[in-house]
Structure to design on (77 residues):
């Protein structure tokens, strides 16, 4: 059975990623923004690997330099 996720790229979480997530979280907290650790880690991975993040959570817009994926309009269901 082929997984529907098999086409997605797997990104390894390294010590550098965790450190960047900690620095990002601390930077956001200094601005009064507290995000869940899972979201900060996703953002750190995306920043580290220059990936876009597809998310509906509006707080991802608070992360400086994070590229958000914007689907093209006119998608039919």
């Amino acid at each position: 059975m082929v997984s529907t996720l098999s086409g997605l790229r797997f990104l390894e979480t390294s010590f550098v990623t965790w450190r960047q997530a900690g620095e990002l979280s601390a930077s956001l907290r200094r601005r009064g923004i507290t995000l869940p650790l899972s979201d900060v880690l996703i953002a750190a991975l995306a920043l580290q690997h220059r990936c876009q993040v597809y998310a509906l959570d509006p707080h991802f817009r608070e992360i400086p330099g994070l590229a958000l994926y914007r689907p093209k309009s006119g998608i039919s269901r």
In short: Residues 15-30 form the longest helix (16 residues).
